Amino acid sequence: MDASGTDLDRIEAQRPTDVSHGQRNGTYISAGAPLLATNIPRSNDSFQNGGDGATPPTGDTESVPEYLTNLRLSDFFAFPGEDVQMTPEIFSGMSDGKKECLEKLRSQGMPMARLKSNTGDSILHLAATWGHLELVKEIVSECPRLLLEPNSSGQTPLHVAAHGGHTTVVKALVALVPFASARLCNEESERLNPYVLKDTNGNTALHYAIKGHYFKMAKCLVNANKDAPFLGNNKGESSLFVAIDTGHVSLVKEILKTTGNEDLEEKKSKLDSKLEGKKYLAHVALLAKSKVGALDVILDEYPSLMDERDRDGRTCLSLAAYIGYYEGVCNLLDRSTKSVYVCNNDGSFPIHTAAENGDKRIVKEILRRCPDSKHLLNKLGQNVLHIAAKNGKARISHWLMNNKDTKHLGVGQDVDGNTPLHLAVMNWHFNSITCLANSGKILNLRNKSDLSARDIAESEVKPNYIFRERWTLALLLYAIHKKGFQCVHSLTRPSEPLDPKNNRDYVNTLLLVAALVATMTFAAGFTIPGGFNSDTEKPNLGRATLAKNPTLFIFLLFDILAMQSSVATICSLIWAQLGDPLLIRESLHVALPLLLFSLLCMPMAFLFGVITAIGYVKWLLVIISIISGLFFLWAIFILGPHVMLQRSHLPPKFAGKFLKTFMMSKDISEIFFIVIRYIFFRHF
Predict the structure, then answer these.
(1) Residue 459: C-alpha distances to residues 220, 469, 473 (Å)
(2) pLDDT in the model for residue 30
(3) Is pLDDT above 70 for 329?
(4) Rounded Cα gap, residues 653 and 637, in angstroms
(5) Does 357-483 match 1-197 at the fold level?
(6) Which of 8, 91, 329, 362 has a CB 3.0–4.6 Å from the CB of 354, allowing a cystine?
(7) Which is the CATH superfamily of the domain at 1-197?
(8) This prediction's pTM
(9) Which of 510, 517, 437 lies closest to 475, judged by CA?
(10) What CATH number is given for 357-483 in this structure?
(11) How far is residue 79's CA from residue 56's CA, in Å, rounded to a whole number?
(12) Cα–Cα distance for residue pair 126/157, rounded to 1 Å
C-alpha cells in the first residue's frame, strides 16, 4: 500500500474520537467534523489565473487541468517527490509578494508544492504570513494542496494568516476552500475541513483570531465552520472560552447561535457534548468581569449555568462574591435570589464567601435582597460575622455589629462554641476586637472547652514579643476593663526573649540610634540659629546674637532634653550588654521610653530652630508648623505602641485610651492613603 493509502487508513481509523491526532508533518486533524466546509457559497470571481498550469475556477470543469480534477483525499497528504529546500531568493521574493518569483518558478519547472523553508513553511505560508492577498489566491488556484500543508509548528496557511491579523487573506482562504473541495468527490469533500486543524499547541486558526482581537476575522471563521469554536487547545481552552475571556459579546453571541434553537435541556446537552476542555462558561465571564454583557448572553441562552459549580465547587454567585465583582453579583441576584441559598461544595454560602473576601458592598447587597440569609450557617455552624471575624475583615465586622438587624450575630456560637470574638482572638485580628467586644455578654461567653476570649488570648500569647498578639491582648483587656466586670491590672504581660542573639542585635540597634541622636543634638547645641556676636566693639563678644529670643530658648531646651535622654538611653543599654535576661528586660523598660522621648524632642528642637531663623515670614511659619505638628503626632503613634507593649506593667486607664486613639488614627491614615492613591495612581 502506498503512503497516501496509509494516511487515509489512519485518518479513517481515528474518526470515532473527538479530535484525532492523525498527522503528517505535525498536522493535527479533527475527525469529529468535516475537514473542508461545504456550506460556503462558491466565489467564482475571487481567483486569478495561475499561469500556464492554472485555470480560474469558473465552475466549468472542462477548462480545469487534469491534475486539478478528480482529486483524491490522499492528494492533500501525499505529495509526489521529496521536499526541496527554499533558496534565500525564493524566500525573499515570496515574503515581499513578488509575482515574478512565482513566474520564475513555473518557467524553471520547480516543484512549488515541495518548496520548504528552514521552518517548514511553504510558499503559501510565506504569502499568507505577510498578507499578500493576490499572491495567496494565485498560489491556491495552482496548488490547492497547500491549504492543508503544515509547517514545523503544525500551522497551516490559515493559521499563520490568522496569527498575523490578515483578515482579507483569511476571508480569501475561506472562499478558496470550496474551490479545492469541488475537485473532490462529495464523500471526500465532506471529510476535509481546514478550520478544525490544530497546530502543535492545539490552537485552531480561530484561536489566533480571537487572541489577536481580530473579531471580524473571527466571525468569518465561526460562520465558515460551526464546530471549530468548541475545540480545545492543549491548555483545554476552546475558542468560545477565549472569546468569553476577552469579553467580545457579539462574537460569543455568534458562536452560541450555532448550537441551535432546541429546548433548554437539549441545547445544554448539545453544548456539553461539543465543548472540549474547560467548561464553566458563566464562571469564565465572571472572572473576565465583562461589563458589556458576555454574562448576560451566556445566561440568556443557558440559564441553568447559573447554578453550575466550577472545579473548586463554587457557584456563580459565590465566585462573583469571591473576586469582589459587585456588578456581577447584582446581575445574578436580579435573575434569581435562590442562588443565595445554594451552598458550595465546602458547605459555605455566597454570603460567607463575600465576608471572607471582605467586600462590604456585596455583603450588604445580599442581605438587602435576602434578609434571612444572615442566618445561614456553613458546615461549621458559622454565620457571616464568624467568617468576617475569622478572616480579619474589620470593616464588615464593624458594619454588622453596628447594624441593629445583625448585631445579635455577635453572640452566635459555632459547632465548637466559639463566638466571632473567639475566632478573632484565635487568629490575632486586632482590628476587629474593639467592635466585637462591645458587650459584657459577649466577653463572658465560653466555648465548649470552657474558655472565654480572654482565656484564649492570655494562654496563647507567646512569651517573646509578637506585635499582633500583644496588640490583640491589650485591646481585649482594655475592652474588659471598660465594661468593668473583671479586674484588669495591666494590658501587657512580661515578655521573655527566646533568642539571645537576636536580642543582642536589637540592643545594639537601639544603642546605635541613641548614639546618633546624642551626636546630632550635641552638634546642634553649638550651631545656634542666628549665629554668634563677632563685633569686638559690642559687649557679649562670641555669644549668641538671639540669646533673648524665646524661640531660641525653646530650641535649646528641646535640644538639651534630646541629647541627655539619648545619653541616658546609652547608659541603660550598656547594662543590657552583660547578658543577664533580667537586666535586659529592666534596661529596655528604661531605655525605650527615654529613646522615644529623645526622638520626639529632636524634631521639636529643629522646628523651633527654624522658627527662630524665619519667624518673620508668617505664611512660611504656618506651613512649617502644620507639617511638623502632623509629623509629631505620626511619630507618637508609630513609636508609642512599640514602647508601651514591651513594658511589663501597663495601666489600662490612660494606656488603653492611647491605644484606641492609635487605632482611630491608623484607620484615618489608611483612608487618607487610599484617597491619595485613587487621585494620583488610579491609572497605574
Answers:
(1) 69, 11, 10
(2) 36
(3) yes
(4) 17
(5) yes
(6) 362
(7) Ankyrin repeat-containing domain (1.25.40.20)
(8) 0.71
(9) 437
(10) 1.25.40.20
(11) 22
(12) 8
